[in-house]
Amino acid sequence: MSSNPSTVEQVSEDGTTRRDFLYIATTAMGAVGAAYAAWPFIDQMNPSKDTLALASIEVDIAAVERGQSIKVMWRGKPVFIRNRTDMEIEESKAVDLSDLRDPQTDEERTKPGHEQWLVMVGVCTHLGCVPLGEAGDFGGWFCPCHGSHYDTAGRIRKGPAPLNLEVPDYQFISDDRILVG
Amino acid sequence: MATGSYTPKNKAVRWFNERLPILSLVHGTLGAGYPAPRNLNYFWNFGSLAGLCLVIQIVTGIVLAMHYTPSTLAAFDSVERIMRDVNYGWLIRYIHANGASMFFIVVYIHIFRGLYYGSYKAPREILWMLGVVILLLMMATAFMGYVLPWGQMSFWGATVITNLFSAIPGIGESIVTLLWGGFSVDEPTLKRFFSLHYLLPFVITGVVILHIWALHLPGSNNPLGIDVKGPQDQVPFHPFYTAKDALGVGVFLIFFGLFVFYMPNSLGHPDNYIPADPLVTPPHIVPEWYFLPFYAILRAVPDKLGGVLLMFAAVGLLFFLPWLDTSKVRSAIFRPAYKLFFWLLVVDGVVLGVVGANPPEGSWILIGRLATVYYFVHFLLILPILGKVERTKPLPESIASAVIGNKASARPATAPAE
């Protein structure tokens, strides 16, 4: 109310007033506050502490003979643990890397000293189905959903999947125990 | 909610607004297109604060529902998991639990504001009655929400409140069985309470829209309680009251934050951190603080049906308030006797609250009965008679002349904000 002498607007040369400044300062302050307040409501959708507490598992693999596989649950997904036969390992090592869509050597997919053990997340890299073991054109895994063929090292050889089956972070605690995650 | 003659400056925005005049609606409801009396004081902040509370409860509630399990076996543990494991779950739950109390604080002040300044009188009767509907819905929502953590107070509160309906002669027991979905408060009760607790806030939102609609036809009442005579009595809602409301929001959030961060359990009852046990009733059952006055009225009557009827009547009475108060003068500023009785009613409400928090024994019984009788005497005897016999003070000629003197009435106050 410019006619009230006590609140006369001081208009600067470029036409801005103190009120313009107050508007911008208030709005900016409110926006920062709102963004700050929004974070807990977004972060609550991230994995909770009890979910993260179950993020790594120990697996006893002593009972898995050569040529056998087990499946364990890890982070809600199956993990394939296969004790490969010598023939499977040789087959895998014989592949020319230039034939592969996602080139990885057999050594890169196993741990040194434990070459017969193959540990992979059993989720097809195409659209998330669980592939069948000891199946497909390459003696490895075959995904029934859209026909992706993986070899004896879990590498994609044929079909729509773009990548090899994922090898999770894991380590051998001893010769017959592994820690996944 | 007049859409007004709002024309956005931006061409694309104007194109949109011509096809869906939602910006015109906002402009006419909360913007510069809604002229409000120029003399509104800070008690008029509590309407927008109540709206803010509703939004906070809905937002935090939707998040809590993502983590809560409505089952007698898992409910308590799922709430503890929210407190311990879910990221910021403790914060969101404490905001929700204390937010219910904040909502009632705000709404009770909003109601007493209406009582003091006569905001329920013609032509705002429907506006007032919609407000009473919102209060009832809030009470139902808050009660059912309190049951969900499935602690001892949840369980026994649910048992006591649902048993109120057993007081109805003849069909009472059948109604209670129907409410429970069994022969006691159990799994089906919890599940339906969860469903309804999620639903009712959206029903409240709907009634709030009607409440605002009914407000915008006559416009806001004001501390003087006299009608707006012309533009010199008004200022545009934006920026004057948006700024005033924003300041109120800041102060309110500080108050809210004190509870959430420094005393989050001060308004709750520790027994609700004990899992529900249908075999053991806690020695002293009390409802949440905002129900205490009504709880006191329930216990004041030595008859089961009588107590229940009186308790519901205490709220139901408010529907008839516009006709019980026979005075033509709205604001207590010009009603010296009413002003006195208003404050007596406030004291009476506080006394009822204290009585409700104490065990029904000794002198608390007598105090509770006297306070209950006075509550009804205020509305049923004092208000109808007072309006006929009270000598009211002379009303000012206009809002502008009362607020800024006669010199102001010559020039319009609704000049656009610089």
UniProtKB/TrEMBL annotation, chain B:
Q: How does it sit in the bilayer? A: Multi-pass membrane protein
Complex and partners: The main subunits of complex b-c1 are: cytochrome b, cytochrome c1 and the Rieske protein.
Q: Which UniProt keywords apply?
A: Electron transport, Heme, Iron, Membrane, Metal-binding, Respiratory chain, Transmembrane, Transmembrane helix, Transport
Coiled coil segments of this chain = none
Q: Quote the subcellular location field of this record.
A: Membrane
Q: Which positions, given as ranges, span the membrane?
A: 42-69, 90-111, 126-148, 160-183, 195-215, 246-263, 305-324, 336-357, 363-386
In this chain the Cytochrome b/b6 C-terminal region profile domain maps to: 227-397
How is the co-factor bound, per the entry? Answer: Binds 2 heme groups non-covalently.
Tree of life domain: Bacteria
- Its predominant location is membrane
Q: Which SUPFAM superfamilies match?
A: a domain/subunit of cytochrome bc1 complex (Ubiquinol-cytochrome c reductase), Transmembrane di-heme cytochromes
Keyword flag Transport: yes
Protein name listed in UniProt: Cytochrome b
* A Pfam family of this chain: Cytochrom_B_C
Q: Which residues form the Cytochrome b/b6 N-terminal region profile domain?
A: 12-224
Q: What does this protein do?
A: Component of the ubiquinol-cytochrome c reductase complex (complex III or cytochrome b-c1 complex), which is a respiratory chain that generates an electrochemical potential coupled to ATP synthesis.
Record bears the keyword Cytoplasm:
no
Q: Which Gene3D superfamilies match?
A: Cytochrome Bc1 Complex, Chain C
Cofactor names: heme b
The entry's family comment says: Belongs to the cytochrome b family.
